[in-house]
Amino acid sequence: MKQHGFRIELPHQTLDIDGNELFGIRPYELMVSSIAGCSAAVFRKIIEKQRLEIDDLEVAAEVERDELAANRISKITLTFIVRGYHLDRGQLEKDLELAQKNCSMVQTVKDCMEIEERLDLVHLNHLNHY
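Now predict its structure.
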């Protein structure tokens, strides 16, 4: 415990947690980060296993909270932004569905909140590189 919130010593870093973002990461942000990070890591692993070539993978999270129910998280929308040259939307959509089924964090909370996943493809061409 510290003056504001708590400090957690992890093997690779120290993490300050507090309901006030001035003093640390907020608890709901940790949950969203865990879900987004797990889902993205599983998605990436599937893409790599299939030897699909992508240039970059980014995930953005939008959160909806229910003020009438202790401000609980009611929905998380994850948008996966995949950049690459020869992207196959159909294959990547299947891979994203598989990732959701194999992400332990999504599977842990799927009955408590809505998790929506979207796929945004950015097709690169030779003009994108200078």
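The mean pLDDT is 94.
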